[in-house]
Amino acid sequence: MSIDIEASGPFPGLFSLVSIGAVPVLRKKNVWEVDDDQTYYIELKPLEDAGELPAATNIHGLTHEYLVEHGREPGPAMREFAKYFNSLTRRYKKVVPAAWPASFDSPFIGWYMQYFLGQNPLGWSAFDIPSYGMGLFRCGRPALRNQMKKAGIEAGKNPNPHNALADAVEQGQTLAQLLNLAQSLKAQRKE
Predict the structure, then answer these.
(1) pTM for the model
(2) DSSP per residue over 100-129, as a string?
(3) Were 167 and a residue from 4, 39, 49, 119 both cysteine, which residue would form a disulfide, CB within 3.0 to 4.6 Å?
(4) CATH top-level class of 2-190
(5) Under a CB-based contact definition with an 8 Å cutoff, are residues 47 and 24 in contact?
(6) What are 132-180's pLDDT values in tens digits?
(7) Where along the chain do its domains lie?
């Protein structure tokens, strides 16, 4: 499952999680793809006394005032997200949160789940999409996008960058392409 979040700053608790987007990445008939029929998106009210960096707001465009008026309370929002995640785990064998980078998105999800639900139904595993790509191409982070481009892996067309759902879909498409390439390379080695 590809997850993306937007936040009011770099650290959970000190700053607010403002939105979550998620989409399953599934293997159907031996091909990895994003399941656009099962997307998830929610905007959250800010935490009381949490910081807000203007640079973060400029990136995602969700102002404090907008979120106070339109966002969901964090507790019910996290219960709803957990319900979405659990519905996927009932349907599929294993659901692992994946993000680009997981080091930013996963701590926010984990902190909010633990704080508001007392547990994290997503677990403490996270699949870091760029790390997978670096391993696949045997390159460092600076060369990754160029290596992906050479292999024909292009980021999806994202009409709304820094919208958590649009970013989750785009990252999911990238992950699906990486998984399909890895599958193809594995098949070639067997020949």
Answers:
(1) 0.94
(2) TTHHHHHHHHHHHHHHHHSS-TT-S--EEH
(3) 4
(4) alpha beta
(5) no
(6) 999 999 999 999 999 999 999 987 778 888 999 999 999 999 999 999 9
(7) 2-190
